[in-house]
Amino acid sequence: MEVNQPVSDEEIAELVAPDRDIAVAVGEPLVELTELTVQFGGLTALDHVTFDIKRGEILGLIGPNGAGKTTCFNAMTGVYKPSHGTVTMEGKSLVGKKKHAITRAGVARTFQNIRLFGEMTALENVVVGLDARHRTSVPGAIFRTPRHIREERESIDRGMALLEFVGIADKATSPSRSLPYGYQRRLEIARALATDPKLLCLDEPAAGFNPAEKEELMELIRQIRTDGYTVLLIEHDMKLVMGVTDRIVVLEFGRKIADDIPTKIQQDPAVIAAYLGVEDDDDGVA
Ligand SMILES: Nc1ncnc2c1ncn2[C@@H]1O[C@H](COP(=O)(O)OP(=O)(O)OP(=O)(O)O)[C@@H](O)[C@H]1O
Predict the structure, then answer these.
(1) Is the minimum distance from the CB of 79 to ligand 1 under 6 angstroms?
(2) What's the complex ipTM?
(3) Is residue 187 predicted with pLDDT exceeding 60?
(4) Residue numbers of the domain that contains 272
(5) Within a domain: residue 1?
(6) Separation between Cα atoms, residue 79 and residue 107, nearest integer Å
(7) CA 72 to ligand 1 centroid distance, Å
(8) Distance 40 CA to ligand 1 centre (A)
(9) What is the per-residue pLDDT across 225-277, written as a single tens digit (0 to 9) for each?
């Protein structure tokens, strides 16, 4: 793959977030979950959970282990079908849609366990995400029509801009499995952004990070929001969650127990009680 480095910050911003209102103010609800319920046999993993995600905000989704956070992501992204309730994006239902239709509707996610194509280079991993948006037919690709060549060029330019944006452009041509762990996490974010989502869901993106890497990640998440994306963040590290989110929804045993700004969440008796007895420092609310 021939690689062109974007030249300026403005060029990178335009390639990363085309046709996007940069720095949108927190606004009307983008995604609404109403009475969302997911059951596994006799276990109710998510129990009539209702909250919204507002356009332009960074919303934290927290709770002790097993509270239902990942189940909530999975129900939103088409992995699980809820047994009750609705999920809408800009008023349209996401329930029952296939995963690729949900991606097209504008929801992208990363996973707790990194899922990259290990043999592919970092750039190729991102270009795979970009290709989902292209319109070239198979004959177009085989005969290398002008449209195919143009789209391929655009993919590489935008892929490089995304790698630049997450800070790993220097590793564009390295196989993803050879990248340091922190780079792989950033690459996952770049690949999710490649689908041009309205909502980016990050599932424990700081897992395994040292304090310096966590600081850098906070900066990246803020930058992602500044570029006009809405972010839903599951994260156990309370310093990170409190430092980067606008609002936090707290789950316990599948139920929503709080929904407020970070400073209020820290003092909420129900939230403090939910975390009492949790030994891992990272899980403490304070
Ligand atoms: N596929 C599944 N089949 C059966 N039970 C499941 C499944 N996925 C999750 N659960 C159960 O649902 C509950 C909620 O799990 P979930 O993974 O959503 O919690 P979580 O808040 O993301 O936890 P953690 O912080 O540990 O990742 C748990 O009791 C879990 O064991």
Answers:
(1) no
(2) 0.95
(3) yes
(4) 9-283
(5) no
(6) 13
(7) 9
(8) 9
(9) 999 999 999 998 999 999 999 999 999 999 999 999 999 999 999 999 998 75
